[in-house]
């Protein structure tokens, strides 16, 4: 038992994920093993039925063929002793026929032969005792020798018991019962095949069991990947959120303490600076907690859209006007390209938030003298339409290796610079959430030093008047 724990710890680890993966592997192994054994049992059962059904059909076909021949002129030839000469037989012996006998109603043998002479006495004993049914096929074991051909027996000839399938047919002539035909075939090979087949299937099962365990381990490892990633994201989320919340709270506490210590006139510049600092940090906390609440609702499935028809072009103009003040402070030119009117049915508040996030992000990472362009357009390709939002900037750009992660929560390409700019790393994560919630897609193209392009597409949102 200690060796099992050591092996488990080495292969899966001793942490929570390792133990969970071990349980998954065990569950997958048991499930796949059960399915494998069930499959083997079904295969064996089907083979068993098919093999014996095939032998029964062969023997029945043989009996029907021979009884049909006896109902014709062949029976008269048998009665005239035509087939009593050595080497002459009414029916030939083959792999499907080891013996045949025609017994009249008085129990006398009309004709018959066998592949081994030892069979005759044993079959006749079974006929006399009524062990052979006249209406069904029977499987019986008879004592024979290894050598099937008639030859002079020797003392060292080895005897064995062979399984035969025996059947019978009643013989009628002119409506009168005149005898019974008995015929049998060797089915010992089929018996041994069905005896060895479970062992072979069990061996194959044990061989595949190793493959099952390996596949179970792979499946459990793949199943643990999203769990590990979700757990790590949650851990990072909690850590970063705690840090982000602790910093403004510390500043707020220090500012309050400073107000308590300093006894200055109400119009003093120091008091004004402290109050402004408190105001900024409180606003920062409100934005952060609002973003956290939005993402928390998304994770819990509580987020809801309040769709209504509104003019997207007009909303874009108003949003651009608001953001132009921020752009002017950094000496950045903000340009809007939009149609006169573009009516869509969406959650207006969410769309405004999306525009603010994208524009604020573009302005934040664009240096003085640069430009940010907001493009609002609609495309219509019957029977569906879509509208496009694009935000282009001439900012610092994003390295190619960082592009897949920019929509992750609390992720920043340059963490130190982002903190100085007052960012939390939640904006783009929220933007992606809004786009996906509205059934759209968001893509980004960027090169360091050349700027970035964020492109949003949403389908089937145009009003009937625009189509």
Word description of this protein:
This protein is of the alpha+beta class and 467 residues long. It has a domain of 161 residues: Histidine kinase-like ATPase, C-terminal domain (Heat Shock Protein 90, 2-Layer Sandwich). Helices cover 52% and strands 21% of the residues. The chain contains 9 helices and 12 strands. The strands form 3 sheets. It has a 5-stranded antiparallel β-sheet. Strands 7-9-10-12-11 form a 5-stranded mixed β-sheet. The longest helix is centred in the middle third of the chain and has 74 residues. The chain is rod-shaped and about 140 Å long. The C terminus is likely disordered.
CATH fold field value of one domain: Heat Shock Protein 90
Main CATH class of one domain: Alpha Beta
The percent of residues in helical segments reads 40-55%
CATH architecture call of one domain: 2-Layer Sandwich
Instruction: Give the CA-based shape.
Output: rod-shaped
Uncertain residue segments: 148-155, 415-420, 462-467
Name the structural class: alpha+beta
Percent range for β-strand residues: 15-25%
Mean pLDDT: 78
> CATH superfamily membership of one domain, which one?
Histidine kinase-like ATPase, C-terminal domain
């Amino acid at each position: 038992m200690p060796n099992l724990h050591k092996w488990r710890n080495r292969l899966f680890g001793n942490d929570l994920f390792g133990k969970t993966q071990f349980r998954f592997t065990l569950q997958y192994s048991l499930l796949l093993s059960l399915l494998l054994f069930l499959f083997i049992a079904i295969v064996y059962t089907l083979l068993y039925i098919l093999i014996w059904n095939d032998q029964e059909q062969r023997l029945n076909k043989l009996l029907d063929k021979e009884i049909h021949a006896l109902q014709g002129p062949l029976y008269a030839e048998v009665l005239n002793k035509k087939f009593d000469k050595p080497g002459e037989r009414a029916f030939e012996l083959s792999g499907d026929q080891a013996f045949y006998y025609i017994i009249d109603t008085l129990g006398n043998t009309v004709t018959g032969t066998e592949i081994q002479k030892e069979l005759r006495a044993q079959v006749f004993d079974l006929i006399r005792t009524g062990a052979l049914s006249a209406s069904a096929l029977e499987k019986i074991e008879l004592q024979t020798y290894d050598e099937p051909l008639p030859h002079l027996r020797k003392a060292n000839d080895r005897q064995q018991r062979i399984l035969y399938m025996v059947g019978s047919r009643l013989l009628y002539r002119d409506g009168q019962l005149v005898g019974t035909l008995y015929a049998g075939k060797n089915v010992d090979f089929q018996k041994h095949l069905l005896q060895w087949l479970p062992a072979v299937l069990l061996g194959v099962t044990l061989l595949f069991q190793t493959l099952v365990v390996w596949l179970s381990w792979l499946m459990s490892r793949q199943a643990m990947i999203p769990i590990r990633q979700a757990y790590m994201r949650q851990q990072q989320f909690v850590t970063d959120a705690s840090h982000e919340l602790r910093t403004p709270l510390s500043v707020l506490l220090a500012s309050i303490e400073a107000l308590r210590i300093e006894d200055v006139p109400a119009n003093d510049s120091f008091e004004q600076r402290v109050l402004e600092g408190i105001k900024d940090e409180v606003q920062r906390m409100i934005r952060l907690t609002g973003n956290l609440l939005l993402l928390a609702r998304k994770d819990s499935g509580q987020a809801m859209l309040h769709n209504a028809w509104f003019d997207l072009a007009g909303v874009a103009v108003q949003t651009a006007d608001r953001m132009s003040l921020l752009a002017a402070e950094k000496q950045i030119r903000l340009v809007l390209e939009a149609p006169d009117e573009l009516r869509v049915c969406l959650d207006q508040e969410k769309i405004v938030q999306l525009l603010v996030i994208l524009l604020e992000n573009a302005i934040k990472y664009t240096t003085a003298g640069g430009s940010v362009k907001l493009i609002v357009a609609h495309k219509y390709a019957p029977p569906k339409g879509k509208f496009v939002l694009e935000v282009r900037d001439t900012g610092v750009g994003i390295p190619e290796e960082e592009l897949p992660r920019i929509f992750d929560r609390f992720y920043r390409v340059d963490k130190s610079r982002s903190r100085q700019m007052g960012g939390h790393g939640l904006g783009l994560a929220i933007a992606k959430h809004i786009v996906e919630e509205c059934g759209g897609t968001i893509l980004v193209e960027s090169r360091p030093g050349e700027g970035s392009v964020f492109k949003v597409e949403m389908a089937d949102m145009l009003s009937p008047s625009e189509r």
